[in-house]
Amino acid sequence: MAASAARGAVALRRNIDRSVAFVRKIPWTAASSQLKEYFAQFGHVKRCIVPFDKETGFHRGLGRVQFSSEELQNALQQEYHIIDGVKKLELMCLFFSKFVFCQMFLR
């Protein structure tokens, strides 16, 4: 039973999608299309999701960008990600079933 659980955990780690980035601190003026256009400079963006709050009509300042392959590494190598000319985005990636801050800007 324990061996089976261990194999399952290893399989889970191998299936983590390394092409997905979670983005925080998105300016409220930025739309998902603008975010997709920005990240397209690093590779083909398969999907860009910025969820909206139903009550306010604004997005929540976070989103998810999925690249076609592991092109996420190209985005992670850039030191700063600025959208709308003023906002530094925070990029996070999901590795080994826990969040690892790959790029973080506090200002």
Automatic annotation (TrEMBL):
GO terms for molecular function: RNA binding. The keyword RNA-binding applies. Gene3D superfamilies: 3.30.70.330. Keywords: RNA-binding. It comes from Rhinopithecus bieti (Black snub-nosed monkey). Pfam families: RRM_1. Residues 19-91 form the RRM domain. It comes from the Eukaryota. This is RRM domain-containing protein. Coiled coil: none annotated.
